[in-house]
């Protein structure tokens, strides 16, 4: 909700001066980092540069992953650590996932306090039970690479900014004889007692602290090193180990370790550093991370943030964001521009840089490697991002996406299982979700001519991954042509996803003249037909004896055979062969009626009550836009006789599923996929099947979009007669010639030129 008070503009808690806003034409003014911080968004509002390793953000509670030995469902709200509706802050940590439906990280939380020292965060119902502080959105400012908030309890102003590998804190204190900086290495997102394996801290001198933390979570073997430098010398310091399980302590008892002792080690460590402050005095902290060593962390710090000018670092970070946002310049109404550029902001958070300034990084084999000729990345949420995020990168970030492909190939080389990543982070394979959609990312880059890696090596890695019979029912799939539900769960989802990935491999092989590979995998790509039940008209779980599973509910999103979706939505998941799917389902007329029913029927709440990733906010009829498997469905009308319905449904989703408010996302952003769908669809096209050079046309929501491509060309999209009512496309003209088809090619975009949509209120 937008409110104007006394010359200030308030948008979802972000405060700008009207005068400054009018004079400042930077695109970052249209970014609202608070979008998606509430409900299902699971994003965070903190400080990070594009694709930064450090993602510094406030934490608003400390919910445990389990209660009384059982999963605590409320912890799901804290995948990113921050909830907009909360009223307290427990501190600011340096690593986060953006918009994921599962979580980890939250490394090295820092909290500043005054008065009596407390080393427990306490509980939200009684803030004074610990060191947490109340805060108000009226003092909260969130911008790209900048976050500010008043810690009301302590009268401390907290400000955050970051470089790629360094978090920069600035705390403005009141006058106090007892000012504290707390470094909490107990805190973590999705935390539980045994998550912290070991923590070590070393006070090198009165302004430098180094150390590391090992955790066992979603990434079961994570080690993060740090170097922390303070702008003011410490007067005294100490630490507390909250673990009750460490029985043996060696012979360290000869030292009094809890106060002013330079080494701290244990599993549940909270350290404190004390100062005396004058009114308005600023204490600054530079906190650098490394996957390799404390020496590398210190080198990262000295290289990226050598001085103490907070504003200089902030200005440089925001300049990076402005440079990235300017890759696409749009003309649209204010809400659309805010949705668009916030989506670009979210799309450019992940994957994250995972190497030090000297090129070193920790590999999947837990050894130290050096990235030669590429930037190494991590945070690959590939079940989500293969659909639109990486195809978007192939248009406006091809060099960066080539480095991401190289990172995936390095993962393959270091993998004990000899597989490409499924869901990887911080030198760990998390094995989350079905399929192995790195294949899609590699194929899309190869067929679209993205350079910077060995395409044949990429194809070989894809083939080896796809032949790994011991993985997730893949042996049954290879032998039987489908995954049998009685042998391996989520069988329909897996069969459909494997078939699509097989098609991707075939496209790579065809591009590279590998005919034997093409023949093998184009045949496998037809396997989606084996789980189609003509009697019911749906994709259906099949048993190992060849019969379809008897009990079957087409609406239930928790039904055996499917993962995070129901038979209605997964029934359309044949992105690589829409024409064959239409024929399989009875032809264009019947298929169109089936699609109409998906959007027009009403899915009762009971059918998604047990599925965390699906909520009412993300549903249109029975079409679940809030979760990724459905993202191509609205475009399938392009293969029928009524393509105007693609235009209608796309604009409906753009309008209903994205709002410039904290709860404005219709589901988890999932490392940029939800946002990438918006960016591409708002410009009027979408990659229904990554691995193809074609993009299906839709209905642009912007008046104009200018794409500044890395090859020096400019591609301009113009929507004539654009309005909220004019959602239908009367004709499309490409470079002065009428386009008599429902798609545009990658080459046509990358060659530059102009695409003009003529819009109307009638189809």
Structure in words:
Among the domains are: 53-312, Beta-galactosidase, Chain A, domain 5 (Distorted Sandwich); 374-543, Glutathione S-transferase Yfyf (Class Pi), Chain A, domain 2, CATH 1.20.1050.60. The strands form 13 sheets. The protein has a 9-stranded antiparallel sheet. The chain is globular and about 80 Å long. The two termini are 33 Å apart. The longest helix has 21 residues, at 491-511. Helix 8 packs parallel to helix 11 and helix 11 (491-511) packs antiparallel against helix 12. The protein is of the alpha+beta class and 763 residues long.
CATH class of the domain at 53-312: Mainly Beta
User: Which structural class do the helices and strands define?
Assistant: alpha+beta
* Total strand segments: 42
Main pleated sheet: 9 strands, antiparallel
Features:
alpha+beta; Glutathione S-transferase Yfyf (Class Pi), Chain A, domain 2; 6-stranded mixed sheet; 42 strands; disordered N terminus
């Amino acid at each position: 909700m937008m409110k104007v008070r006394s010359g200030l503009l308030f948008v979802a808690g972000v405060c700008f001066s009207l005068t400054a806003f009018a004079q400042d034409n930077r695109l970052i003014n249209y970014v609202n980092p608070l979008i998606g911080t509430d409900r299902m968004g699971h994003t965070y509002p903190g400080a990070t540069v594009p694709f930064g390793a450090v993602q510094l953000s406030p934490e608003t509670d400390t919910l445990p992953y389990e209660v009384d030995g059982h999963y605590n469902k409320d912890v799901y709200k804290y995948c990113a650590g921050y909830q907009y509706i909360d009223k307290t802050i427990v501190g600011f940590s340096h690593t986060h996932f953006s918009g994921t439906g599962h979580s980890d990280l939250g490394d090295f939380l820092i909290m500043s306090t005054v008065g009596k020292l407390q080393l427990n965060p306490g509980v939200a119902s009684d803030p004074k039970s610990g060191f947490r502080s109340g805060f108000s959105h009226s003092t909260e400012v969130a911008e790209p690479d900048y976050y500010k908030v008043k810690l009301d309890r302590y009268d401390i102003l907290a400000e955050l900014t970051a470089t790629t590998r360094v978090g920069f804190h600035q705390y403005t204190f009141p006058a106090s004889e007892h000012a504290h900086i707390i470094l909490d290495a107990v805190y973590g997102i999705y935390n539980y007692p045994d998550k912290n394996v070991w923590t070590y801290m070393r006070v090198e001198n009165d302004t430098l602290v180094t150390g590391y933390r090992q955790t066992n979570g979603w990434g079961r073997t994570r080690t993060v090193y740090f170097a922390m430098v303070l702008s003011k010398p410490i007067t005294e310091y100490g630490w507390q180990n909250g673990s009750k399980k460490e029985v043996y302590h060696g012979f360290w008892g000869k030292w009094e370790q809890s106060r002013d002792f330079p080494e701290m080690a244990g599993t549940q460590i909270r350290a404190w550093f004390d100062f005396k402050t004058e009114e308005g005095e600023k204490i600054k902290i530079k906190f650098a991370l490394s996957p390799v060593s404390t020496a590398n962390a210190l080198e990262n710090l000295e290289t990226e943030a050598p001085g103490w000018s907070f504003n200089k670092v902030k200005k440089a970070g925001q300049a990076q964001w402005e440079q990235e946002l300017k890759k696409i310049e749009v003309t649209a109404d204010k809400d659309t521009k805010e949705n668009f550029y916030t989506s670009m902001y979210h799309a450019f958070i992940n994957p994250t840089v995972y190497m030090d300034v000297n090129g070193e990084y920790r590999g999947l084999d837990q050894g130290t490697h050096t990235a030669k000729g590429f930037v190494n990345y991590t945070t690959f949420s590939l079940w989500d991002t293969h659909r639109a995020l990486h195809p978007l990168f192939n248009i406006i970030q091809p060099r960066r996406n080539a480095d991401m492909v190289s990172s995936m190939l390095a993962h393959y080389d270091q993998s004990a299982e000899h597989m490409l990543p499924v869901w990887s982070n911080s030198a760990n394979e998390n094995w989350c979700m079905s399929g192995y959609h790195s294949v899609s990312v590699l194929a899309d880059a190869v067929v679209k001519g993205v350079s910077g890696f060995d395409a044949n090596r990429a194809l070989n890695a894809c083939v080896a991954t796809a032949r790994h019979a011991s993985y997730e029912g893949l042996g049954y799939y290879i032998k039987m042509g489908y995954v049998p539900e009685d042998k391996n769960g989520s069988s329909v989802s897996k069969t459909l996803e494997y078939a699509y990935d097989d098609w991707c491999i075939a496209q790579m092989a065809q591009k590279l003249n590998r005919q034997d590979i093409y023949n093998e995998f184009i045949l496998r790509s037809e396997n989606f037909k084996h789980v189609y039940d003509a009697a019911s008209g749906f994709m259906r779980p099949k048993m190992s004896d060849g019969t379809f599973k008897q009990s079957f509910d087409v609406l239930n999103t928790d039904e055996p055979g499917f993962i995070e979706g129901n038979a209605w939505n997964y029934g359309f998941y044949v992105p690589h062969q829409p024409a064959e799917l239409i024929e399989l389902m009875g032809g264009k007329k019947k298929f169109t009626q089936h699609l109409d029913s998906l959007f027009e029927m009403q899915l009762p709440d009971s059918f998604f009550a047990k599925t965390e990733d699906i909520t009412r906010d993300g549903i249109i009829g029975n079409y679940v836009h809030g979760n990724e498997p459905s993202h191509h469905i609205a475009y399938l009308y392009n293969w029928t006789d009524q393509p105007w319905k693609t235009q209608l449904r796309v604009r409906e989703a753009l309008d209903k599923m994205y709002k410039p408010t904290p709860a404005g996302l219709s589901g988890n952003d999932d490392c940029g996929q939800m946002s990438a769908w918006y960016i591409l669809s708002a410009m009027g096209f979408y990659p229904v099947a990554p691995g193809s050079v074609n993009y299906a046309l839709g209905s642009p929501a912007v008046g104009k979009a200018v794409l500044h491509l890395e090859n020096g060309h400019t591609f301009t999209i113009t929507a004539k007669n654009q309005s909220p009512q004019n959602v239908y496309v009367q004709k499309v003209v490409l470079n002065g010639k009428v386009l008599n088809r429902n798609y545009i090619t990658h080459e046509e975009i990358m060659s530059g030129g102009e695409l003009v949509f003529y819009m109307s209120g009638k189809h």
